[in-house]
Amino acid sequence: MSIKIGDRVPDGTLGEFIETPTEGCALGPNNFQVADMVKGKKIALFALPGAFTPTCSAKHLPGYLEHYDQFMSKGIDEIWCVSVNDPFVMGAWGRDCQVNGRVRMLADGSAGWTRAMGLDQDLSARGMGVRSKRYSALIEDGVVTQLNVEEGGAFEVSDAATLLKQIG
Length: 168
Description:
Radius of gyration: 15 Å
Shape: globular
């Protein structure tokens, strides 16, 4: 069953490749607990089938980068990009797209969190294995307040402009 508006996001572990070490985060892949990450925050989340894939690289991620300032002006604390890839791939994709800290490039390497959200899809027939559906969501203190799930290979409702319009 898929998560819906009003539900609390499940806890899980997401990985992030840290480019610049800090006191709390070492250089390289670091794991974070979703329950801790969402506490007290307003998060614009978008998820997609894979890093470096055509629609994801040409449209989905660039839209959130382009609208970064508008998201921040609406009180968003963080923008997350979640994909069933490893943290090294997500880090490389972020560097390639010049994310520069504007979007947290979060890896769900084994699709555990994606499955718990009920937003996984099996793309094994296309050689990609289990991946995330394409969607966007607004998460406020761990609760889903907006959710836009794409059908099939569409890119119509999970774009940055649509989620921006839904933020109160």
